[in-house]
Amino acid sequence: MSSNNSSAANAWLMLLLAGTFEIGYALSVGGSNGFTQLTWSLVAVVFFLLTLWALSVALKTIDVGTGYAVWAGIGAVGAAALGPVFFDEQLNLVQSVWLAVIIAGVVWLKLADKTSGADDTQAAVERPQAAQSAGV
């Protein structure tokens, strides 16, 4: 695996981790009861910091629009799927179908990510040339 492919794979793994932290954040905010439960509130703060850190690392490589959409999708689907496990919530068939649509969108965003070596090489060549012409 080339360095660029390895970097992209690591970024996507970091984005997956950020999405997992986002699920933890959403669920702990729900459990905090409006930040009135100290333990849940502290857990929410920890997950909040972790999700922002992991997202920011992933966005060094992944386009912001794609990364944010995937991160939000993972968080939304995870919170909706696990809400009934941890809280007195319902998840009906129609909601499940629309969550599946979100999952499909996340998968298609990953598949559409710029991973071809030619695109990465061309961008790497253009970036320094643009900076040089700008006098940087």
Automatic annotation (TrEMBL):
The chain crosses the membrane at residues 38-59, 68-87, 93-112. Keywords: Cell membrane, Membrane, Plasmid, Transmembrane, Transmembrane helix, Transport. It comes from the Bacteria. It is found in: Cell membrane. One of its GO terms (cellular component) is plasma membrane. Coiled coil: none annotated. Its main location: membrane. Belongs to the drug/metabolite transporter (DMT) superfamily. Small multidrug resistance (SMR) (TC 2.A.7.1) family. This is QacE family quaternary ammonium compound efflux SMR transporter.
